[in-house]
Amino acid sequence: MYVREHAKKETRLMHFVGTTAAVGCLAAGLLLRKRSLLALVPLVGYGPAWVSHFFVEGNRPASFKYPGWSLQADFVMWSKIVQGKMDEEVDNILSTTTYEEVGTGASPG
């Protein structure tokens, strides 16, 4: 279901930007010993993703209900975007959506 909740390329791009920015803030905060940068990690990481869910995808972020699982899945998606594999995966998943799945709006777990 996670992939279906990221069907629009704009949503995936916003996640990619947010995850990249969050990792950058984390690394810079640790290297420079700046707590202010560390404090920005959740904002820059989740902010773009949540905006994309509410205003682009029109759904609720999985991180509201499954924060740990969602974070892990974001890194998997980030990796697949870098490898150029995410669009194909989305297309494959969306092409196998059943009538029941569309009607339920089911989430993982």
Question: Could you explain how this protein is built, in words?
Answer:
- The longest helix has 24 residues, at 9-32.
- This protein has 109 residues and is mostly helical.
- Helices cover 72% and strands 0% of the residues.
- The protein starts with 8 loop residues before the first helix and ends in a 5-residue tail after the last helix.
- The chain has helices spanning 9-32, 35-57, 67-82, 86-95, 99-104.
- It has one domain (4-94).
- Keywords: Membrane, Transmembrane, Transmembrane helix.
- The chain crosses the membrane at residues 12-31, 37-56.
- It comes from Chondromyces apiculatus DSM 436.
Brief rundown of the structure:
With 109 residues, the protein is mainly alpha-helical. 72% of the residues lie in helices and 0% in strands.
List the helices and strands and how they pair.
Blueprint: H1 9-32, H2 35-57, H3 67-82, H4 86-95, H5 99-104
Organism: Chondromyces apiculatus DSM 436
InterPro entries: Mpo1-like
Protein name: Transmembrane protein
Q: Which labels suit this protein?
A:
single chain, 109 residues, mainly alpha
**Rg (C-alpha, Å):** 15 Å
> What's the overall geometry?
elongated
Unreliable spans? none
Alpha-carbon distance between the termini? 10 Å
- The helix fraction, in percent, is over 70%
Indicate how many domains the architecture comprises. Answer: 1
InterPro entries: Mpo1-like
Keywords: Membrane, Transmembrane, Transmembrane helix
Organism: Chondromyces apiculatus DSM 436
Protein name: Transmembrane protein
